[in-house]
Write a structure and sequence with these properties.
Blueprint lengths: L6 H10 L10 H9 L9 E5 L4 H14 L4 E4 L11 E3 L2 E2 L2 H19 L8 H16 L4 E5 L16 E4 L7 H4 L3 H8 L9 E3 L4 H13 L4 E3 H4 L1 E7 L4 E7 L2 E7 L6 H18 L7 H10 L7 E5 L2 E5 L4 H14 L4 E7 L6 H9 L4 E5 L9 H6 L6 E4 L4 H8 L6 E7 L1 H12 L1
Parallel strand pairs: 1-5, 1-6, 2-5, 6-7, 7-8, 13-17, 14-15, 14-17, 15-16
Antiparallel strand pairs: 2-3, 3-4, 9-10, 10-11, 12-13
Length: 434
Amino acid sequence: MTLFTTYQEAIDWIHSRLAFGVKPGLERMEWLMHRLDHPEQKIKAVHIAGTNGKGSTIAFTRSVLQAAGYSVGTFTSPFILTFNERISVNGEPIQDEEWLRLVNELKPLVEELDTTDLGPATEFEIITACAFAYFAHVHPVDIVLLETGLGGRLDSTNVVHPILTAITSIGHDHMAILGDTLDQIAAEKAGIIKRGIPIMTAVHQEEALAVIQRIANKQQATCISLHDTCTFGHVEPTETGERFTLRTPKGQYVELETGLIGTHQRQNAALAVLMIERLEEEGVVKVEEEDVYTGIRQAVWAGRFEKVRNQPPVYLDGAHNEEGMNRLIETVQAHFPNKQVHVCFSALRDKPYKDMVQQLETISSSIHFVSFDFPRAESAEKLYTSSRLEAKTYDDDPESVLDFIQEKKDDPTAIVLVTGSLYFISDIRNRILG
């Protein structure tokens, strides 16, 4: 058996498994977990699904728990800064040599699995297995916040035995796999609900919430709806985030402030607070009120309405579906009502980008369409032709975004908004910040 000697060899091997595509189902994960002595059963995990808001909700929850002195593991996707961040402890990505060790442990098992009737493991299945092995055997932590990759019911992460589950939102995304209607998508997300394990949700659509509640009842799981149990007051945008008062069933948090900009971040922060309160009620953690204020204020999440340059102001936001775009537009209107908004946009060809472009046109003074180096990236020209805006340009080279930004540097009324695919956001962020 030949093992890898370098980190890059290990990561290249993981990426080579992209050739096997997306294969919903738990059989291969269950096989791997059995051979790894069930690491998924040895961690205290909070399992989080949702169309949008998973990463930000995890960021708020992690930050509050860290403020209270706990060690917190996170498993998230996709990455923005480095591949390693998909598995992190207290916000710090694991080291190259740790990835190498994990992959070398998995490789013989994966190659054995390849020869079975279950078929080859996918890239995401291998990464998920690495995460479970890491938090169970290499670097145990107090709590693991575990984000689903796609859907929930048949997602690789759903082999976990969590202490709490959450569904952030339901929207139209990955419909070819998850279903065409909100109630079908909700049923797939609600597949993470386990018997007797509480489920918290910020889902607001009646039909989707009804599906979640029905599945929770079937699983004898307490279902707590953010919008049914909490109220918001004194809502206002700040220069660096959002300020609001939150009343929960357990009390009131006056003038909570987020370090993340976006009207939707109020909901994500509130759901994090509800989750913390439930973990306290279950006796899993002890968190002071001051920890909640500190954690919500200090939470960071790259690529979510993140300011990366001052002149002109440049913001990055990975709004990669219609619901995400709606929230982005709400945020721009709330924070920058008197600015000229110049947009750089790129998307994957399997996304409903024509609808997203139409939404963007309502706030844009100009749009520059770009492509980038990714197998499913749409061409800049096709994106360009989908737009009816007069002030539009396109260039397949993502480096052109930097020229577009530079052109606006002397305009005091201008802001530049780089949005679309998270893979695109990651590319541009690296070009701007190095």
